[in-house]
Amino acid sequence: MVVQALKDQGVDVVFGYPGGAVLPIYDEIFQQNEIQHILVRHEQGAVHAAEGYARATGKPGVVLVTSGPGATNAVTGLTDALMDSIPIVVLTGQVPTFMIGNDAFQEADTVGITRPCTKHNWLVKDTEKLSATLHEAFHVATAGRPGPVLVDIPKDVQFASGTYQAPQKGGSRRYQPQVKGDLEAITELVAALETAKRPIFYTGGGVINSGPGASQLLRELVEATGFPITSTLMGLGAYPASGKHWLGMLGMHGLYEANMAMHGCDLMINIGARFDDRITGRVDAFSPNSKKVHIDIDPSSINKVIRVDIPIVGDVAHVLEDMLKIWKARGRKTNKEGLAKWWNQINEWRKVDCLKFEQKGKVIKPQYALKRLEELTKGHERYICTEVGQHQMWAAQYLNFEDPNRWMTSGGLGTMGYGFPASIGVQMAHPDALVINVAGEASWLMNMQEMGTAMQFNLPVKQFILNNERLGMVRQWQELLHGERYSHSWSESLPDFVKLAEAFGCKGILCNDADDLDDAIMEMINYDGPVIFDCLVEKHENCFPMIPSGKAHNEMLLGDASTKDVIGAKGAVMV
Amino acid sequence: MSALQIKKGSTKHSAYNLRPNFSDVEERHTLAVIVDNEAGVLARVIGLFSGRGYNIESLTVAEIDHTGHLSRITIVTTGTPQVIEQIKAQLGRIVPVHEVHDLTVEGAAVERELALFKVEGTGDKRVEALRLADIFRANVVDSTLTSFVFEITGAPEKIDAFAELMRPLGLLEVARTGVAALSRGGAA
After folding, report:
1. The whole model's pTM is what?
2. What is the pLDDT of residue A175?
3. In A128-226, where does DSSP find H-type helix?
4. Which of B9, B51, B90 is nearest residue A313 as measured by Cβ atoms?
5. Residue A179, min C-alpha distance to chain B (Å)
6. A300 and B43: CB-CB below 8 Å?
7. Which residues in chain A are contacts of B51 at CB distance < 8 A?
């Protein structure tokens, strides 16, 4: 019945790991060929792989794991998906209903443990309700603000037979989030848009989650109005990096021009972003003179961190469509004179060239490695995953994303170990694409066991490891905040990554010379199979620009010279 | 529809005002939350309060519609207007939550609480306790030669006042139900 429900929901891939309490479902999987099961090496990997799959396709990712440790290992992935609003459906086995509460072997209170880290979860105690619950799970995961859901199925419920219900159109009656924005508020927004002198679009993952149509509408809107646009880490690709109105990413490690424009704007239009603390910096100094508009499908995101002037609850695509219609009907007006001045100012900021760096000698700068990676891969059908840390920020800064759903990174939770399994999920969704995981050596080691999965299923994922033998971001913070006392932020006893690759049966490439880099990257791209690319980079490079904790957008650090004692005691307590 | 019913995904025009109130003064609000009566729903609501650091002053919950499997949770909470708005929006996000009413701003509401007081004493104190109970319209629901159990219903302040009076007269134990509340007038 479970497999039937998955098929009816259009599932073609399940990431999972068997165990005692899910054996009946695995038995069903064995006896069919429509759904492919990808055996991971750790349940956390299954959830991240499903996240990668979901983000690269827009469809929900599906995970199947056993009770107890299977379920608890899934918790990090669930929390990650909750923070980044990624639709995934996790099915867990549970001990039989009559043993629940007895501390049975591999029993855990799965719905209790996962209640705060799922959008919703269910324990199904009655086989008659199983199919309807599974369909509702898919509906809740994907409707409104997407998120992870979990269905816990006791083993006796899996064994028992019941009547199967096919999915109903439109999903459950009780969960129907509003998607259309309020027209009066949208009109108010259009009026503000017509007169704004220094407007800016600030977009986020909500645009990506709203579907390709939302990105199309956004592009049309930006081109038609000529407003500058910046995006959060989560929203990269919704507007193309090659677009002339693109300012680059904003936030803690965002571009100078993007952050200065956010600080100086008079109209901020937040589309599907949530004023995260990585974006706002010091809240009371955040964009002090702007009228703020917030378009979000989740009412609880509005006025949570930043008080806004025009709140619009609705799905990004629906709201943008209405907004464009109203704006066009009112004569496509913008404040041309003001805009021209605004762009002059922005172009002045751009001249700072905040991402400049100097590649001198043979030691590879991480920025240079990413610049070359961008140059050599940009013609490909390319998907990029990352782990978490400096390399993640550099990837966001130096790689260009032209389309949505091409960029998979752990934003809200910042989960080290996310990228590698995510790249497996992406490659499953797009078998012929070039899937690269930009990693740090420390993050990568957190889920390196998944190399077995990549090998078993012939998934040619490229692991591009910027190896500085340090926990780079931790080291950077210790330098800036903790008097250069580098407490436990270096990686000793690292494996020889080339030999590790050989041990798994894939290809390993070592590069430690800037002159060899291009050839090495080409070798990685051209190899038909998984590659571990060990790129030894400058060990003490810091990631700039940076808004230090407790500072405002116009107080960015641009380079090493300005970094001494910049973070006060107040800032030091923030993360 | 009442003045401040929050529908899922409501906007400023659903009476649920998303526009900020700039006050930093803590307010006390009584919320009525209509939920599906299913396993774990109370844990979801309480987990939201503890997980996000909101206060609960009082909480009551019981099924109100057996055929529809609906329960009503009445929560008394405190916070700045911004926090109260967040609490309501976060509650509205929980899948089995149908409606969130803020009875404090929706108009006049009646709030009632039931309490049981066990008071031990003899002589003058016993007489005085009985006399005060009469003034407060409390009923005697159990009696021995040296003790009473009083049942009292009223607004929380009335029950507080009664407790203060009973304390010197030999108050042994108190059990309170927490606040149940309904809006006044004909509309639901």
Report:
1. 0.92
2. 85
3. 130-142, 155-159, 183-195, 205-209, 212-225
4. B9
5. 8
6. no
7. 116
